[in-house]
Amino acid sequence: MTAEMYPVFHSLPLIGRLAHRSFPSAWFRQSVRWLSLSGLAALMAMSAGCSGSGGGSGGGGGGGGGAADNTPPTATLSIPNNSPILTTDALQVVFSETMDTASITGGLGIWSASNAANDTYTFTPLAAGPFNRTITAKDLAGNPMAPLVLGYGVYDAFYYVSTTGNIANNGTSPATPMLTIPAAIAAAAAGQAVKVSAGTYQVTSGTDHVVLKSGVSVYGGYSADFLTRDRTANTTTIQDIQTAAGTPANPNRAVEASTAITGATVLDGFTINGSTASPTGYNAAIYNTTGGAPTLSNNTLNGGAGVESYGVFNDADSAPTLTGNTLSGGSGTTNYAVYHNSTGAATFRANTIQGGTGTSSYGVFNWGTLTLIGNTIRGGSGGTDSYGVTNLNALTLADNSIDGGGGGANSYGVYNWVTITLTGNTIDGGRGTAFSYGVYDFGTTGLYSNVIAGGGGSASHGIFGAAGFTAFNNTVDGGTGVASSTAVYFEAAGAAVKNNILFTSAAAGNRYCVFEAKGASDPLEFAKNDLFGCPTALYWNGGTTAVNDLVTAVVGVSTLADLANIGDNPAFVNQAGRDLHLQASSPLNVRRGGVDLSATVPLDRDGINRTAPMSMGAYEQN
């Protein structure tokens, strides 16, 4: 470990902070705001380095009539964040000036002097396992430092792997690295970790692919001398070269996690590619099976080629946690960035997920129990159909950005078959040339505080309801379909639609705020919505009649006005630029015209508390 001081890099220790909360979008957005503060601290640290405002007690500000000290302190770390460290390493936080030692929170270390008294805080020794802290502190003038989030894996010993290593080496020092990752994993014991230097490590699925071991973590991104870790500069690749065909029940894979692999086993900092040499097979970058539940972070996963290809394939009762990864489905005829066919509860946070380039392309396909929070998900560019998220079982979907992709014929942001809840997402139907759908729902989905757009193509639909869904406080754009665009399409009866802003942004074609496919498609409730920008019909009634005002009967014998719906332009901040927030100049009927649904929808898309009288749409503006 070098003595060089590194700038503070961001960390994502979300798991502990996000647990045990009943409303996913609330606690995720609070965490994002909290983490963004630590990101600010990092930027300030990179700018300020270790320059202080004075030694000793001088950090308290100028005396004798000098200017008051209003500059917040910054900090640097002796070891980069998100790095594996040993139990014997001294982890130091060096502040830019003398600090008020009584003000620190989140620490169990000791103060020591470096350039000035009480500017250095040292953690040592450390116990094996995850080390996560959020440090806050003030300088002597009372200026608070932005929260500093620390996240490390602490281990008893390291093994080393290099493309210039030797099979005869013991791998216990940078000078004697092993040649293969599987050999180092086999030599290591629980509580130890493997460091891998830059280069490409070829494996053959079923013969010598990487099989994770309980309690042994593996980190890529190291320089040839192992003195620095930079995942971008030191690309570390695991490449499956298997030519034999895998099967759906036993796909080829570069990396595997199975029985007894828990979250204490970390795989971080790799580019992992499924086989492209098995064109008639089933190929995956990572295959989790039989209870495998590793922590997969900061990796780039590509499914490879074949009949089907998978960025990550979760089978049996596997339940991995993925954070900060980039996943692609590859170029299989059918491809999946995420294929979850497991009863285990897998969790994906803050990943970038994209289906590949095959005929049918899926960002996420869920058959099991899955939580998706704060991810960016895109359907890919399937030659026939592309899907952002396809769900057939238990799914939590909150605070994601989802796009249906560029499917040749049809594209779907969310394609759902069962009862789930979508909260605080931004969803776009994509660019299918025939049909595009923001949300295509066969279940009885609850849609709360989402921003939804139908996408492009010939015909676009914001929400296509094939069953009785519930939509409260969404902002829904029917999209830019050339022939037709519809904000909400009732294929079946029973929907409850309240406090939404419904509009279309197409330049031509038939444009509907609401389209009832037939007389038997009446919603259960349709009240307190704002309908505008729909010149063909505000409400296409019973599959036959265009209603373009608020006083013609629609649902039963009621009118839109009787149901407290309005027809005002909401004056978005920038509709053309897709900033659909309301503003202080938005009509009062939109800003304060919604019914109080805060018991069901307590927060808006930004995590702001809903207050009565509620605004219509996804964003609160009182």
Describe the structure.
The chain is mainly beta. The chain is 7% helix and 35% strand. The chain is built from 4 helices and 48 strands. A 14-stranded parallel beta sheet has the order 8-9-12-15-18-21-24-27-30-33-36-39-42-45, with helices on both faces. The longest helix has 25 residues. The N terminus is likely disordered.
SSE inventory with pairings:
Layout: H1 14-18, H2 24-48, E1 75-77, E2 84-86, E3 91-95, E4 110-112, E5 120-123, E6 129-135, E7 148-155, E8 158-161, H3 181-187, E9 193-197, E10 199-203, E11 210-211, E12 217-222, E13 236-240, E14 252-257, E15 266-268, E16 271-273, E17 282-288, E18 295-297, E19 300-302, E20 308-314, E21 321-323, E22 326-328, E23 334-340, E24 345-349, E25 352-354, E26 360-366, E27 369-373, E28 376-378, E29 385-391, E30 394-398, E31 401-403, E32 410-416, E33 421-423, E34 426-428, E35 435-441, E36 446-448, E37 451-453, E38 459-465, E39 470-472, E40 475-477, E41 484-490, E42 496-498, E43 501-503, E44 510-516, E45 525-527, E46 530-531, E47 537-541, E48 545-547, H4 588-591
